[in-house]
Design a protein that fits this description.
The relative contact order is 0.17. The chain has nine helices and ten strands. By secondary structure, it is an alpha/beta fold. The strands form two sheets. Strands 6-7-8-3-9-10 form a six-stranded mixed sheet, with helices on both faces. Strands 2-1-4-5 form a four-stranded antiparallel sheet, covered by helices on one side. Adenosine-5'-triphosphate binds next to helix 1. It comes from Larkinella bovis. InterPro entries: AAA+_ATPase, ABC_transporter-like_ATP-bd, ABC_Transporter_VariousFunc, P-loop_NTPase. This is ABC transporter ATP-binding protein.
């Protein structure tokens, strides 16, 4: 499985967010997509899932340039995104059923996967009969994750999956993701939680000022573990030193 992004560009009202991005993803990659607030990570993921229309660029999926509705790619996707939150009027279980029907998941398979996923991610599966509008932030994230995973997607795109999860739930998710990696599956995780990214990612992509500042293996990024992942990122992003001159503090 191969997904190639060629010369992808996107601007909003004259502000260039993605400037001729070139990336080649392959099955087996677990990619940590990192960068400052506003760097363009969500925009990049939304271009892949066809929620944002790029100004230029091509997606090439398994050797074929994608045009039109891009169904060949969409059928392989599992997505966790704040832009596509689980439908609040549905109960958790009905939301999973909705995802299952959309993707044509057969009933026995649906029952098995939905029960096992929810038992894994939720402490109290009784919540699944309640409306998502009554869920906490972490519960919404968990039902979104269950929905993204229900189809066992070949391409799993997770936008800030760890944000809002308690530490125990993060551990569950990390162990799940470690087990999810396969030679025919691609996982892309946009996140600010570098320590969690370090536990699951095999490859790191740093997006900054509309371009890719780093694309390589995690061990290369941390100089074979001799650098802390945070320090390695600071080196690349070269943060400006800001003085704390608040005379009212
Ligand atoms: N619909 C939009 N209209 C105008 N500008 C937008 C829109 N969506 C995103 N932007 C701008 O594009 C830039 C990149 O936003 P994006 O959400 O992709 O960043 P991000 O890296 O995901 O940020 P964060 O880490 O804060 O989630 C920001 O400057 C943002 O204001």
């Amino acid at each position: 499985m191969e997904l190639i992004i060629k010369e992808l560009s996107k601007s909003y009202q004259g502000q260039c967010v993605l400037d001729s991005i070139n990336l080649a993803f392959r099955g087996g990659d677990v990619v940590g997509l990192v960068g400052k607030n506003g760097a363009g990570k969500t925009t990049f993921l939304n271009c892949l899932i066809d929620l944002v229309k790029p100004d230029a660029g091509d997606l090439i999926f398994n050797g074929e340039r994608l045009t039109g509705d891009r169904l060949a790619l969409k059928r392989t996707l599992g997505v966790l995104s704040d832009v596509l939150p689980p439908v609040p009027e549905f109960s958790g279980f009905d939301y999973l059923r909705f995802v299952g029907i959309l993707h044509g998941v057969e009933e026995t398979t649906f029952q098995k996967r939905s029960q096992e996923l929810t038992a894994f991610f939720f402490d109290d599966t009784g919540a699944l009969t309640k409306k998502i509008s009554t869920y906490s932030t972490g519960m919404i994230k968990k039902i979104g994750l269950c929905g993204a995973l229900l189809t066992v997607p070949s391409i799993l795109l997770l936008d800030e999956p760890f944000a809002g999860l308690d530490p125990l739930s993060v551990n569950q998710l990390i162990s799940f993701l470690k087990n999810y990696q396969r030679a025919d599956r691609l996982v892309i995780i946009a996140s600010h939680d570098l320590n969690y990214i370090q536990e699951v990612a095999t490859r790191l992509v740093v997006l900054d000022e509309a371009v890719i500042k780093f694309d390589g293996g995690l061990s290369e990024f941390t100089a074979n573990g001799t650098k802390l992942i945070n320090d390695a990122l600071f080196d690349i992003l070269a943060p400006k030193t800001k003085t704390m001159a608040f005379d009212w503090l």
